[in-house]
Amino acid sequence: MTDRTASPAPTNPYLVLGAAIALPGSGHVMLGVPTRGLQFLFFMVILAWVTTKVAPPDASFVGRHAGGFLIYALSI
After folding, report:
1. 68-75 — which CB contacts under 8 Å span 24+ positions?
2. Where are the domains of the chain?
């Protein structure tokens, strides 16, 4: 007889997408790679802070935090 271990059911991709949209990096945590999710969250915050410091004062909110939004889009 072969040993058949029950593997967990795959996570619903729409649930993972919803979690990633709600909180960047949480989709990776749900898929079992929490280190990668925390890296995305860390770099999103760091790049948002950096672009805030280098953006011109008259830039919009999105322009001032463009680095963070870039990482947010990549994490989704």
Report:
1. 68/44, 71/24, 71/40, 71/43, 71/44, 71/47, 72/24, 72/44, 74/40, 75/20, 75/24, 75/25, 75/27, 75/28, 75/37, 75/40, 75/41, 75/44
2. 34-76
Global pTM reads: 0.71
Which residue in 4, 44, 2, 3 sits closest to 20, CA to CA? 44
Q: What is the DSSP letter of 25?
A: T
The string of pLDDT tens digits covering residues 2-21 is: 656 666 777 888 998 898 88
Q: Could you report the per-residue pLDDT of 29-64, keeping only the tens digit for each?
A: 888 889 998 998 899 899 999 999 998 989 999 899
Q: How far apart are CA 41 and CA 57, in angstroms?
A: 25
